[in-house]
Design a protein that fits this description.
Elements (H helix, E strand, L loop, with lengths): L21 H10 L14 E2 L11 H8 L9 H14 L3 E5 L2 H12 L5 E4 L4 H9 L3 E4 L20 H9 L8 E5 L12 H14 L2 E5 L3 H11 L8 H10 L3 E5 L10 E5 L2 H14 L10 H13 L3 H20 L12 E5 H4 L9 H13 L1 E2 L1 E3 L1 H4 L15 E5 L7 H16 L8 E5 L10 E4 L1
Helix pairs in contact: 1-14, 2-11, 3-11, 4-5, 4-10, 8-9, 12-16, 14-16
């Protein structure tokens, strides 16, 4: 008999989580203005808001933290991280930052100017926010297959080279400095980008004389999918695949709170010494000195260790199989999700689950609210609220996909928790015909509104 799958770790420490009543959740959500970001953590039973900084570190990472060098300049922890980035990712120059959006802020301060155009694959919220804050334009060039949630297509995160061609043909060449590829593609459902697509986009960028930058929050999960789904990579190690992925890139930004399994941290890495020198000015202004940026020495040590652990197959298999487990439970219940199942989260198709809710009433946010009320589960809307308003017309943007993301923290919950999530989703699904009213925005920030927006139910 074949042995069943088991996690590649054992539990060493636990933290209690509290259950609540529906009446309590209704009151808490009302006080939070129906924005799940505003809930206190102890008001949430299973927290799937994000996988960013919410995972459990290993004993090796905790041990590395105790050896952190907190020297202001030239700390050994900086050089530990520099070595890990060189060995695993292949970049000679890097700048530490406190998280991914800080890396974007520093790098885009050099590269993005008013009137510029930045093509890519479904820029995530902070990426697009930093572009539009500088009065530039982010243009989505994701392949069309990404918008068909029931279609089983192995690399829905891919960039369409045909769409890139159209962007370059219709834009002043001086306005495009780089193409950005997000791996995995979060906004399209945690979908991977193939090695062939990275190769093709890299060749296209070179032909146009522009840089290729990789937004790398979940690069290791992307490498796992290349190994499992792309011919010719089945016998390669994750580290070998990662090495080839970055051979096609000129620079990268990293939110290390995802695939490096730390609670805080990020960095920029690049091949160009000139770009490093230009970005260094902004890193010192916004983050800190060059050898610590926005990070403590102990956090850099944990990050260096996490880059190594996070690019090992056994860890990734355990992590992704839990996401797959939840996705398959939802599929069994007939719940519409983005398929194939992604690496860090399961994305529910809110348009299909709540067909009675008009796009103007934000179906994904409505579904996220219902799921919290059902069982104290906190997900996040990846839809029109996150898409924000057009910076010129100030009209709401309605993306092709209205999704609720259930992002699973690394090494944190058991499959029993996933069963609770699945049944809670099924309960909402079973009463979907009774959900006929959505919600409306009553107060919002001028940019990246979804973090602080105030909402009312209709």
């Amino acid at each position: 008999m074949e042995l069943p799958f088991a996690e590649s770790y054992r539990i060493k420490m636990v933290a209690p989580i509290k259950k609540s009543t529906r009446a309590e959740r209704e009151q808490w959500l009302k006080e939070a203005h129906y924005n799940l970001f505003n809930l206190k953590s102890d008001q949430v039973f299973i927290d799937l808001l994000t996988d960013s900084g919410t995972g459990a570190m290993s004993e090796q990472q905790w041990s590395a933290m105790m050896l952190g060098d907190e020297s202001y300049a030239g700390a050994s922890s900086y050089y530990n991280l520099k070595t890990a980035i060189q060995n695993i990712l292949g970049f000679d120059y890097f700048l530490p930052t406190h998280q991914g959006r800080a890396a974007e802020n520093v790098l885009f301060s050099v590269l993005v100017k008013e009137g510029d155009v930045v093509p890519g694959n479904s820029h995530f919220d902070t990426t697009k926010g930093h572009i539009e804050f500088r009065k530039a334009k982010a243009i989505d060039c994701t392949i069309e297959e990404a918008y068909q949630t029931e279609l089983e297509y192995p690399f829905k995160g891919n960039v369409s080279v045909e769409k890139l061609e159209k962007v370059f043909a219709s834009t002043d060449a001086s306005k495009i400095k780089f193409i950005i590829v997000t791996v995995t593609n979060n906004s399209s459902g945690g979908q991977p980008v193939s090695m062939q697509n990275l190769r093709d986009v890299s060749q296209f960028a070179k032909s146009k004389g522009v840089m290729l930058i990789v937004d790398s929050a979940r690069f290791a999960e992307n490498a796992y999918f290349i190994k499992k789904r792309e011919k010719g990579y089945e016998n390669k190690s994750i580290k070998e695949i990662v090495s080839e992925m970055y051979s096609y890139a000129d620079a990268m930004t990293m939110s290390s709170k995802k695939d490096a399994i730390v609670n805080m941290g990020g960095f920029i890495a690049m091949r160009s010494e000139s770009l490093f020198e230009q970005a260094s000015v902004f890193n010192i202004m916004f983050e800190g000195y060059l050898t610590y940026g926005g990070m403590s020495g102990r956090d850099m040590n944990a990050l260096a260790q996490g880059l190594d652990e996070g690019t090992e197959f056994d860890y990734l298999e355990t992590r992704i199989k839990q996401v797959e487990y939840l996705g398959n439970r939802l599929i069994e219940f007939g719940i519409p999700i983005q398929r194939p199942i992604g690496g860090h989260a399961v994305f529910i198709d809110a348009k299909k689950l709540l067909p009675n809710i008009a796009k103007e009433e934000f179906p994904a946010q409505t579904l996220a609210i219902e799921l919290y009320l059902e069982a104290g589960i906190r997900g996040v809307e990846i839809g029109a609220i996150l898409a924000d308003r057009d910076p010129i017309t100030r009209e709401n943007r309605y993306p092709a996909l209205e999704l609720v993301r259930l992002a699973i923290p690394r090494r944190t919950y058991t499959n029993n928790h996933m069963d609770v999530v699945a049944v809670a989703c099924k309960n909402v699904f079973d009463r979907k015909e009774k959900i006929t009213k959505g919600c409306k925005i009553v107060k919002e920030a001028p940019i990246m509104r979804h973090f602080t927006v105030k909402i009312e139910r209709m």
